[in-house]
Specification:
There is one protein chain. This protein has four helices and four strands, in the order αββαααββ. The chain has 126 residues and is α+β, with helices and mostly antiparallel strands. The chain has one domain: Threonyl-tRNA Synthetase, Chain A, domain 2 (2-Layer Sandwich). A four-stranded antiparallel beta sheet has the order 1-2-4-3, covered by helices on one side. The chain is elongated and about 50 Å long. It starts with a helix and ends in a 12-residue tail after the last strand.
């Protein structure tokens, strides 16, 4: 059984690897927070140079909407891979997945709703 920190670290590693493999680059920074049966993943610096250029070259609304549509489609297409990784790391199934990205800040958020809170062992006090 893993500690909460070990689960969070493993999810960060898995999501970072996913971003590199499927999106073409990894995040500059990533943090995962396990809160009961919710797993929140916050990524910074995920926009590729091409995505940044696209957002700037089109009207603000059109560029933002197009980028969000593409990213959402990619996440939904790869959903089975993400869910399998979470299942393996946390030991519980994913109920739902929510995603959003900011074209202004380059921040991306993934929220996994789990079937139950993953079993965690207590961390040893130093």
């Amino acid at each position: 059984m893993k500690t909460q920190g070990e689960i969070e670290a493993a999810v960060c590693e898995g999501i970072s690897r996913f971003e590199q493999d499927y999106m073409g680059r990894g995040p500059k920074d990533i943090h995962t927070h396990l809160i009961g049966d919710l797993l929140v993943v916050r990524l910074h610096g995920v926009l590729t140079a091409a995505e940044q250029h696209l957002v700037k070259s089109l009207s603000p609304d059109k560029g933002r909407d197009l980028l969000k549509q593409v990213r959402t489609h990619l996440i939904e297409t790869a959903r089975p891979i993400l869910e399998a990784m979470i299942q393996k790391v946390a030991g519980v199934s994913v109920l739902s997945l929510h995603h959003d990205i900011s074209t202004a800040t380059g921040e991306e958020v993934l929220l996994f709703s789990l079937t139950e809170a993953p079993p965690c062992r207590e961390t040893k006090k130093q």
